């Protein structure tokens, strides 16, 4: 059984995308296009989203979708 990954607001963007490239698609769909940005090396998902004006509710929705996609890829 594959270990479940838990992405949170504090997850580093670059590390997340490196380990789970499919997360980049979700983040870009939510308008978070800083995947390749230099700051992504240091920013958390929450920091990147806030810089781009994403409200807290949308950040939670995006993180939920990222977790769904990386932990249940066959459900797409």
TrEMBL record:
<dbReference type="InterPro" id="IPR038062">
    <property type="entry name" value="ScdA-like_N_sf"/>
</dbReference>
<dbReference type="InterPro" id="IPR023883">
    <property type="entry name" value="CHP03980_redox-disulphide"/>
</dbReference>
<dbReference type="InterPro" id="IPR015077">
    <property type="entry name" value="DUF1858"/>
</dbReference>
<dbReference type="Pfam" id="PF08984">
    <property type="entry name" value="DUF1858"/>
</dbReference>
<feature type="domain" description="DUF1858">
    <location>
        <begin position="8"/>
        <end position="59"/>
    </location>
</feature>
<protein>
    <recommendedName>
        <fullName>DUF1858 domain-containing protein</fullName>
    </recommendedName>
</protein>
